[in-house]
UniProtKB/TrEMBL annotation:
Residues 25-133 form the AB hydrolase-1 domain. Pfam families: Abhydrolase_1. GO terms for molecular function: epoxide hydrolase activity. Belongs to the AB hydrolase superfamily. Epoxide hydrolase family. It catalyses: (24S)-24,25-epoxycucurbitadienol + H2O = (24R)-24,25-dihydroxycucurbitadienol; an epoxide + H2O = an ethanediol. Pathway: Secondary metabolite biosynthesis; terpenoid biosynthesis. It comes from Deinandra increscens subsp. villosa. SUPFAM superfamilies: alpha/beta-Hydrolases. It is an enzyme of class 3 (hydrolase). Coiled coil: none annotated. Keywords: Hydrolase. This is soluble epoxide hydrolase.
Amino acid sequence: MEGIQHKSISVNGLNIHIAEKGQGPIVMFLHGFPELWYSWRHQIVYLADHGYRAVAPDLRGYGQTTGVAVNDHTKFTIPHVVGDLIGLLDAITNDEGEKVFVVGHDWGALIAWSLCMFRPDRVKALVNLSVAFVPWNPNGDMVKMLRSVHGEDHYMTRFQKPGEIEAEFAKMSYQTFMKKFLTLRDPGPIFFPQGKGFLHSQPDVPVTLPPWLSEEDIEYFATEHQKAGITGGINYYRALHLSWELSSAWRGAKVIVPTKFVVGDLDVAYHMLGMKDYINGGGFKKDVPLLEEVVVMEGVVHFINQEKPDEINKHILEFIRKF
């Protein structure tokens, strides 16, 4: 990570922490839960070495970004975060209205879809990982849909009540929390039965790290989360219903930005609520007309940009070089 610089940018009443490296066209990387800018460490260095300015913020509520009260989940809607990104782009670009490349993963992908839908004038091309576009659903928000299928123990449902899931996570160290999250390899639904922790990995079961994840990586995530807490990240889930309400004007809207999508065939997001059929059956292409390529990587799970950095780096570069 030699040469990565860190700055704090004043935007929308926040101090947004960014990590950046390189000169040239901007590539903005958006992380997911429970991650940070650090999830993009491999991509930042690679894109900078290939003639781009790689910029990765800690999103509102995460890491070293400050200025928002985490006790108010209504401040964590998708429109809030898209607004942060537009303000950030205004601050770091040379020309007003300059277009940039965007790469998103997990929540970062979900936000990137909305960024492209709300403000396609600011995005040159999009590479999204793991989470496909989710069109606005008149029947309700994602939590409502998942609760109806998977019940009260599904992680998105368990994340809804303020303080409850934080108390459960507090029973383990941040190091253990990150290890259990990042090493999840079951593509099925994620459950957190009350009082039982991660169903896929019991609290007293030690985690063996895979080759792509080091103790130093875990320590960085854990240290940052220990300082900032994880409520900010969980608030994105708590604000899903409000995000759904605020986004209703985009009912039926399409994402009109050149796009490439990459997902692992063992990714929990790929197996969620008919998503595989949507991606491969034509629905995805209908909603994202400029979708140029879908790549399904074999034997890869959710944290794809960390598990397979070399492949993801090449997928990103191959696509954005076209523009």
